[in-house]
Amino acid sequence: xxxxxxxxxxxxxxxxxxxxxxxxxxxxxxxxxxxxxxxxxxxxxxxxxxxxxxxxxxxxxxxxxxxxxxxxxxxxxxxxxxxxxxxxxxxxxxxxxxxxxxxxxxxxxxxxxxxxxxxxxxxxxxxxxxxxxxxxxxxxxxxxxxxxxxxxxxxxxxxxxxxxxxxxxxxxxxxxxxxxxxxxxxxxxxxxxxxxxxxxxxxxxxxxxxxxxxxxxxxxxxxxxxxxxxxxxxxxxxxxxxxxxxxxxxxxxxxxxxxxxxxxxxxxxxxxxxxxxxxxxxxxxxxxxxxxxxxxxxxxxxxxxxxxxxxxxxxxxxxxxxxxxxxxxxxxxxxxxxxxxxxxxxxxxxxxxxxxxxxxxxxxxxxxxxxxxxxxxxxxxxxxxxxxxxxxxxxxxxxxxxxxxxxxxxxxxxxxxxxxxxxxxxxxxxxxxxxxxxxxxxxxxxxxxxxxxxxxxxxxxxxxxxxxxxxxx
Amino acid sequence: xxxxxxxxxxxxxxxxxxxxxxxxxxxxxxxxxxxxxxxxxxxxxxxxxxxxxxxxxxxxxxxxxxxxxxxxxxxxxxxxxxxxxxxxxxxxxxxxxxxxxxxxxxxxxxxxxxxxxxxxxxxxxxxxxxxxxxxxxxxxxxxxxxxxxxxxxxxxxxxxxxxxxxxxxxxxxxxxxxxxxxxxxxxxxxxxxxxxxxxxxxxxxxxxxxxxxxxxxxxxxxxxxxxxxxxxxxxxxxxxxxxxxxxxxxxxxxxxxxxxxxxxxxxxxxxxxxxxxxxxxxxxxxxxxxxxxxxxxxxxxxxxxxxxxxxxxxxxxxxxxxxxxxxxxxxxxxxxxxxxxxxxxxxxxxxxxxxxxxxxxxxxxxxxxxxxxxxxxxxxxxxxxxxxxxxxxxxxxxxxxxxxxxxxxxxxxxxxxxxxxxxxxxxxxxxxxxxxxxxxxxxxxxxxxxxxxxxxxxxxxxxxxxxxxxxxx
Lengths: 473, 473
Ligand SMILES: Cc1ncc(COP(=O)(O)O)c(C=O)c1O
Ligand SMILES: Cc1ncc(COP(=O)(O)O)c(C=O)c1O
Hints:
Low-confidence stretches of chain A: 81-87
GO molecular function (chains A, B): DNA binding; DNA-binding transcription factor activity; pyridoxal phosphate binding; transaminase activity
Protein name (chains A, B): PLP-dependent aminotransferase family protein
Bound molecules: pyridoxal-5'-phosphate
Organism (chains A, B): Ornithinibacillus hominis
Oligomer: homodimer
Number of strands of chain A: 15
Family (chains A, B): In the C-terminal section; belongs to the class-I pyridoxal-phosphate-dependent aminotransferase family.
Keywords (chains A, B): Aminotransferase, DNA-binding, Pyridoxal phosphate, Transcription, Transcription regulation, Transferase
């Protein structure tokens, strides 16, 4: 919001707020049924006391513009302004409720919302702290980039040829031999999953996954009507898959390197065994490898590197390593798959940002990216040790965890099932934001996905203290 | 494709091509059922004679690796390599055919494909010629941009606050009064349509449109199961809409400024009449205004500017004016709509490129964008006159058209129904690419969407000559 009350106006602050809210309703910005921001949020935005906001809202309620719904907040009333002025407004709320795509879980919407606020301590955020981003280097690169007018027009369906050639070379290091025409540039790994969902699977197909799973916190497959089946990778894997798959189309989604949220890292043997089972059963694999570069020790080869039958759809991204704001990722897959996904991408958004692609191409080909990675891994390792030290000192009696092998996360398990939505909300009130385990596995009330990548050392320390306090209460 | 045969190898060119294709099949890149590129394309890519390619392909056919399907091309055979080596490969073709999203029309796939080739003359392309893009200015801006580390992380759901504030100010000039929280940044106008389709409409909703329509050349609504109904805006509009809508959810999609493909521009009266009818019937409007800045004379106010009931979803973009490679557009709409679309956008791709957003923000706020627009309109006007002159001299007897009022297009109508797929394909053989009218209205065989924005003057001249020749045959 842009508006703030004017302290030098002849109107009181409360009157100004009332007028402003009325004008939002009048203009149709806040249509019937809109949930308005909380008093707390408005007070913060307007930089005024919460009691002033409350008085303004009470006045608007009394006049019939707003109404409270028990336990859920304040809404623009049905019989408000519009009725008075005999206006008809579309009932957007009804449109929204009957439409196709699932809303995000409420907890995740809250996370997205509160992440925007400066004073909040983010203990779970799956991204690099601003201070770990190579902002200055990227700024330097921007100065060196010379643009080709042809490259900043509408893109070819698969994305920049230059970037795809550079990636072919880059991916060799993880054992992947491929060609530019077997690569599709996407706007982040998440978009790759979205394209696969609508472009390669019939409704009702099975998507196998392990539990907990990142896929439960977003829902590209669920929103397209796929059936998610969670299984564990034990020695009965082949039998389990055979029994569950029957004659249905299926895919197996996995994160073999530094799994989100557990941080688990598959050994070579586990990778080979898994590949062979899926190959035998003709179950294609989505290998989501966005954390590949962040293993503290050198990473085992990608599953894709064993793939001689076009079984693996391989996904990478620079979101976790360079900058999520670039929105650049890639898929490596057999030609018909790439052509199909590229066709749908063209229908969806006509390609990814040419500028972002140019920046990534420059970063990788100049070697700056790899230099940055070496430093980044060190910094992450220091941060991991810092948090592990705090855990060791203060959480040992109530929780367990595994030492981090890389990436961002520690999958902290409390002995007791204390991690529920109430805890999440109580922490927000104390300006601490966590990623509770139930986002990744609905019935899990034991885990928190701790991230040592985002918050500052002081914040990590303070946030963990507040967490501990609330849990011990 | 990256590979080229080596002229100094001990193997013949033909042998090298055979080996290369075999290795593609072996690695699973070209899986069973993959349609391989045409001989013509391969010859061009490899920079060899077509007859050499043909010999290589004949050899692979004889050995059972490839097979021809009558009139459709050459495919990786079922009983190939894989069978020989007893490998199982996923049948991706089957996956693709049964999946959810519609493929692009074949003609549009061909357009996307041939647009990538350098020697082709593009008579229909809906984008600015590389020489009209302010590439140097953007390069200069890149040097001046100072990045904020916080801005290049994962984005807030609605996109950069800075850009949204700048847009609020920018949109005032077209009569639109709005707030940053009523704006969503999207990856181009096309993505806005996609988000609206899955986020605001129940399956089977009606999307009204005029004919011909840009929406027939992409299908965000069709792929989500909406029913497209085409109607004309005459004085019976209200009755027609009332009869057709019944109790169904519906939206009206329109392009009131420089319509694609006709170039038609609605007067103020038409805009007001249309708005009032839709308001009375409670039919929300999607106002797609991506050509707004390109009207040669000053544009009439946006329909959104009359909107006091939250009835209009307003869409803009910099693709047609600054650079399509930025992939930046916006939606202005009531709060619940924006929140809903932002939520789905987060689930789809976690936001648009922060770098692109920064570039657009810099361009608009520095005034460079408006400066560029003044020059651009002049250049487009000169190009329009150039093409109109050619039409006047050579096409007068066989076709009609209206003088362009701005934008990119002339909607050229041939007296006879000559614009069929055969003509499209014959023109490709002569290296000329057109956008035939049937992309925008299936049964239309009279029109071509000529674009004077892309090809050079020489190309426009030559391309139109070839077109004339073929049509007169
Ligand atoms: C396993 C995994 N896959 C994909 C993504 C999405 O990454 P991107 O920003 O490239 O879309 C994430 C980030 O949260 C992730 O953890
Ligand atoms: C009317 C119309 N709307 C939307 C688009 C898509 O624009 P963008 O590149 O912003 O997605 C186009 C471009 O072809 C168009 O002509």
